[in-house]
Amino acid sequence: MKIPRKASLPARSLAAIFALLVASTSACRSQPPDPSTASAQKPTSMPSAPIASAATDAAAPTPAASTSVAGDAEAPAASDEPLAGTLFTKDVQAAFRVAACAGDDSFIPAGLDKKMVDTHCAILKSGYDEYKREWVDVAGPFLAKLRPAGLPKQVVYPFGGGDLVTALATFPEATEITTISLEIAGDLRGITKPDNKRLEKELATLREHLGKLFLKAHSRTINLDIETRGAVPGEAAFTLAAMAIHGFEPVTYRYFDFTDEGSLHYLTEADIAKAEKANKTGRSGPFANAEIRFKKTGESQIRVFRHVAYDLSDANVKRFPQLMKHLDTKPKVSAMTKAASHLLWDDTNFSVIRDWLMGHTDWMISDTTGVPPRIAKKNGFVQDVYGQYEYAEPFGTVNNRDMNDFHEKFKGSAPIAFRYGYPDNKSHGHIVVTHKPGVGGLKP
């Protein structure tokens, strides 16, 4: 079957675009096998002693403690013990207020033009409001019925760069969320040393990219990579916007790497300086992976969000298995993916992460770029489908067997009123729930 090319979309206001946020936002849209860059992800051995800094609050007590950890429990335990590594608390608070338009005005860095920030936020907040009204209020009750009780509160989201907003909408009770994609977290330190003229341009660019990314998901990787060079990196901006939308606030921010055993090593200022001196950048640099501890506004429970910049192709994860070793410390998780360029259909290049999902989850939600029916059946899963699906949009490599299997599975399925990841080739929204028999929610 010949699949038509994606039609161009008309220009929209930012507020209208935000209404489509979850419909189109997602993971890295295209991740070809990239073994030539796999060496960029090999962790280096670095000193772990924290260095105190007034700018980064490295020694400040925080609500949770961790040093080198293989995997967090369902909910981080409260403790007065300082966290390992350097904490970029002031930086993340500043970015939360300036870029994501939430938090207290006291977080705005000295010397930054508040009027400029207020102008940016007036536009952004109208988009937030419309997104909540047109997507959260529609999709939220539907997703709540799909979720069975007692799901693990640890969530793993492969190919999920920049998409905490959907993860929180799908799993509002999650205490730990891990997204994995090619995009790096980026250097957040520039926000506390703002150049008003430059920052004004960057905030305008951020708004522009939000609009483009929500409508044209296939350009996501390029746009997020551009934003990693700004005062507020793209991954951080999208993550903090998600927290603002869903009523959360950041508590701490720090960078990490993986040891050879798969445990987390939190970076200090000395680690970062050493990596920068060695000109390490991208997924080999010190700003590749970031952790934000966050909480619901007005509550005390600390939750954990981690973004990992990693090439999930089989060649890379087999050569550098540190991420998979870390994921193996999570016996059972809740899982999701969407708009994943059909990579989980690829037996040759992305079977490792697919097999891991089949072994570590009993319940996964996706669009049709998730686990194909033949693999679900082979591993003892059943699939429930919602919405309509004719044939695939041509993102990534699409094979006819899996596409036709989904086409048959969706026959007679009723439409849904929102999108969850890619639409089909006729712009229909759809959802696939892949679960073990007996592990399912109510039918909406």
Largest sheet: 10 strands, mixed
Strand order of the largest sheet: 4-3-5-6-2-1-7-8-10-9
Q: How many distinct domains?
A: 1
Shape: globular
Average pLDDT confidence is 83
* Secondary-structure element series: HHHHEHEHHHEEHEEHHEHEHEHE
> Which structural class is indicated by helix and strand composition?
alpha/beta
In total, the number of strands is 10
The stretches of 5 or more residues where confidence is low (pLDDT under 50) are 1-12, 24-30, 32-40, 42-73, 213-224
Distance between the termini: 32 Å
**Roughly what percent helix?**
25-40%
Helical stretch tally: 14
The portion of residues forming beta strands comes to 5-15%
Radius of gyration: 21 Å
